[in-house]
Amino acid sequence: MMVDESLLMQRMAGRKLSGLIAATYTPMKACGDLNLDVVPAMVEKLLLDGVSGLYVCGSTGEGMSLTTRERQLVASAFVNATAGRVPVIVQVGHNSLREAQELAKHAQQIGASAISATCPSYFKVASVQSLTLCMQELAAAAPETPFYYYHIPVLTGSSIDMVEFLTHADEAIPTLVGLKYTDTMLFEFQRCLELSNRKFDVVWGCDEMLLGATATGARAAIGSTYNLAAKIYRKMTLALASGQLETARQWQSKSIEMICTIGRYPFHPAMKAILAMQGLDVGPCRLPLESLSQSQVESLRESLDAIGFFEWSGDTSKPSDA
């Protein structure tokens, strides 16, 4: 396929993401089927909360538990509902690179702002060369769409040095613009940010460490808990930008407390349960993720109430001491 270089350059010119990008959940019915009628309401809530982009069909969106056709339907629903108001990045990684190519082609056809992909994970990718070849083959299917590699070693089992990957893949993948960096190694994240005179757009992926990443130089972050509490993260980054470091620390502390509380339960099912508590019913997760029992939902609500979540995740001006 011929690359329209002028169109590619136009799309990549304003390529750097900024702010909070919500890793969206995939709404489902009780039977496990997609419930895409909910997507417009999800998008409006996120935009009202101040997110600046959406990341679709990633780990949070259970992309790996969906069929290729389902993933295409989900991507289309979010692109249509967003209507160009914020960037939509579609995660197209798959154990089958052929399926990943189909997802990448579709994302380009529907006008996604960018694509992103994990590497194949059943057969482990063990070298920079192998990772580059895999991502080169995948990204070539969407030659006019910016590409972000999704680095999440805890799930893929691939812990390849990202500085080496960016250096090696730079010329091999013309559409490569950066990474979704979901690891806790701030020093490697900083090296990636500073590589080649800050050429690459490296987006942070660990919500509970956003303050440290922002201080290190992160301009954008993709995360699950921005679905629930984008407002506290925005207050944290605004406090940091205005020199109110102690206030910023307090907001990050609230985030950590929230995440640790949710982490006592199966995480993504608990997140979906909390969205329902906030008035947005996105249904259950799909197996192998098990839904919470009613007693677990009640216990989760009590635990969140005990830490003041429902107060300080709203429109408060200062972190609550609750």
From TrEMBL:
Residues of the active site: Y150, K180
InterPro entries from the UniProt entry: Aldolase_TIM, DapA-like, NanA, Schiff_base-form_aldolases_CS
UniProt binding sites for pyruvate: T60, I222
Pathway annotation: Amino-sugar metabolism; N-acetylneuraminate degradation
GO CC terms of this entry: cytoplasm
Catalytic reactions on record: aceneuramate = aldehydo-N-acetyl-D-mannosamine + pyruvate
Homology family: Belongs to the DapA family. NanA subfamily.
Protein name per its UniProtKB record: N-acetylneuraminate lyase
Organism expressing this protein natively: Rhodopirellula baltica (strain DSM 10527 / NCIMB 13988 / SH1)
